[in-house]
Design a protein that fits this description.
alpha/beta; 4-stranded parallel sheet; homodimer; 5-stranded mixed sheet
Chain lengths: 283, 283
C-alpha cells in the first residue's frame, strides 16, 4: 500500500497507479468483490485501493466526496465503486467529479421491473447477521470444523456434511474452514497416513461415510516444499515420500470412487465451489 | 430449497417464488454476492436460488440457456445474474428469454473508458489463487489462527496483527477465522477468565501487545444462552456469572483503551470490517 502515483517499470517507462475507492453503507465486501471482478481484467495496471465502509449519513457522504475530489485533482483519474443503497447518500456521492460505478443504480431499476415491485432501497446488511438461524449454523460449523480438524475428534462424524481426506499438508484445513464459515457446512477432515494404505478400502473411521468423502491431492514437488517448511530435510518432506503418499492416496480415491481435486492449482474458493457442486450432484 | 412456485402466506394469499440463477465462468461467488446485494432489497419476495458455476464453453452456455428458458416458461418470470466475462459465452447467455443482469456488460465499458485501456475480457479467476504470495499468506494465517485459538499457544504472539480478547463464548473464534481466511491477517485470540480481572492492566500474556488488542463483548442474556448450550445449568452459564464477566471485561477494555465491539448485533463480516478499519486508524 506504499505505491506512489507513478511506478518505474523495468523498461524505464512509468506505470500509472490508479486510485480506486470502494464505497459502502455497510462492510464494503460487495463493493470490493464487484470492483475487483472488473479490475482483474486490467492486469497491466496498478491500483491503489482504498475501502471506505459504513457511510451512513449525507454528512459522511460529503466527506467522502471531498476525498474523491482530492484524488481526482491528482495526475491519474481515480475510479470509485459504490454499493450504497440509500438514495440521498447515493445522490451526494454522485456530486463528486470522480467517475463512480454505482452498482445499485444501474441494476436496481432493471430488477424492480422484472420483479414487478419496488425495492426498499435501504442500507441493507447483506453481510450482517441476516437469517439468524443460518448465521448461527455458520458459527456452529466453524466450531465443528475446529473440533474435527486433522482427525482430532471422531465425535459426531455421522452428522458431517463433508469429510475431506488427504495426506498431511494437501490443504484440508483451509478448505474445511472456508466451507464452514461461508456455507455453514459441517466439515470434518481426516489425514491419510501410511497406516491407511495397506487395506483396499477407506480407513475404517470414515468408511461408512464414503458417500460424503472428498479427497485432495497435490503435486509431489509442491507437497515436498510445503512439508519442508514444517520439517526441513526429513523423510516426511522428501520428494520420494511425497510421491509415494500421493500415488497411494490417489489409488485409494479411485478404488473407492471418492471424488478428488488437485489443490496445487485451485484456490480454497474454487475447491469449495467444486465440492458444493459435487454434493448437489451426489445428493 | 424445497419451495414450490407458490407459497401460502399467513393471510391466505399466495407469495410468488421467483426462480433466481447465478451464472459464472468461475466459482460464482461474485455473481451470488452481486445478485444477493440487490435481492436483499425485496424482503417480501421468496427466491429459489440456483448457482451454475464454471460455465466455460459456448456449448455449456447453450445448456444453461435451455435451463433458463425452461424456467421462463413457468408461472413466475425468473431472473438471472451473470459475471461471465468471455464475449462469446455472454452472447450465448443473452439468447435466453430470461431477464439477465449482466454485471460484466454494463460496467466494463465504463471502466474501460475511465482507465483508457481495453479490459482483457477473459474468464478471470477472481476467486482463484491470484497473487500466489498473498494466497499463501492467507493459508498460513488460517494455520496461525488454529494454533493460537483460545489462548492455546503463546508462541509467535509478537507477530500477531490482531489479538482478540474476550470472555469465553463471545465470538472470538469465528471472527479470528474470518480475518485470517479473507484478509490473511495473523490473528490470535485470548480468553479472559476470572484470573485476569484482579489486576488493573491487561493480562500479562498480551499486555505488551496492547496496541494490537481488540475486545469483544455481548449481552449477558445472549452469553448465558450460548454457554448454556455447552454446559447446561452451570455457574459458567448462569446469568449472574455472565453479567459479572461482561462487566469486568468491558471495564478492562475501557481502562486499557482497548477498542471493543458487541458481537450480539454484528456479524463476523461486520466485526472484521470494523477491526480492519480500526487497525488502519491505529497504525
Amino acid at each position: 500500500m506504499t505505491a506512489t502515483s507513478e511506478d518505474r517499470r523495468p523498461d524505464g517507462s512509468e506505470a500509472r497507479v490508479v486510485p480506486v475507492f470502494f464505497l459502502s453503507d455497510s462492510t464494503g465486501i460487495s463493493a470490493e468483490t464487484m470492483g475487483n471482478a472488473l479490475l482483474i481484467q486490467f492486469p497491466d495496471l496498478h491500483f491503489e485501493r482504498r475501502l471506505i465502509p459504513f457511510i451512513s449519513s449525507v454528512e459522511e457522504a460529503r466527506k467522502v466526496v471531498e476525498i474523491l475530489d482530492a484524488a481526482a485533482a491528482g495526475p491519474v483519474t481515480p475510479l470509485a465503486f459504490s454499493t450504497t443503497a440509500l438514495t440521498e447518500i447515493r445522490e451526494e456521492l454522485h456530486k463528486s467529479v470522480c467517475p463512480l460505478i454505482d452498482f445499485f443504480d444501474l441494476h436496481m431499476s432493471r430488477v424492480e421491473a422484472t420483479l414487478g415491485v419496488p425495492g426498499m432501497r435501504v442500507a441493507a446488511r447483506l453481510h450482517g447477521m441476516g437469517d439468524v438461524q443460518r448465521y448461527n449454523q455458520r458459527m456452529a460449523a466453524v466450531e465443528y470444523a475446529i473440533e474435527h480438524d486433522d482427525g482430532q475428534s471422531m465425535r459426531a462424524l455421522d452428522i458431517a456434511d463433508v469429510i475431506i481426506i488427504a495426506p498431511s499438508r494437501c490443504g484440508k484445513t483451509p478448505t474445511t474452514m472456508y466451507l464452514a464459515l461461508q456455507y455453514g457446512l459441517l466439515v470434518a477432515n481426516y489425514p491419510l497416513t501410511d497406516d491407511d494404505y495397506p487395506s483396499d478400502g477407506l480407513p475404517s473411521t470414515v468408511a461408512k461415510y464414503a458417500s460424503r468423502c472428498f479427497g485432495l491431492t497435490t503435486t509431489p514437488l509442491r507437497l515436498s516444499q510445503v512439508r519442508h517448511e514444517r520439517r526441513p530435510n526429513s523423510t516426511y518432506s522428501s520428494l520420494s515420500q511425497c510421491t509415494l503418499e500421493l500415488r497411494r492416496a490417489e489409488d485409494l480415491y479411485r478404488r473407492n470412487r471418492v471424488p478428488f481435486l488437485n489443490s496445487s492449482t485451485k484456490s480454497v474458493e474454487e475447491m469449495s465451489a467444486v465440492i458444493m457442486q459435487s454434493l448437489r450432484l451426489r445428493s
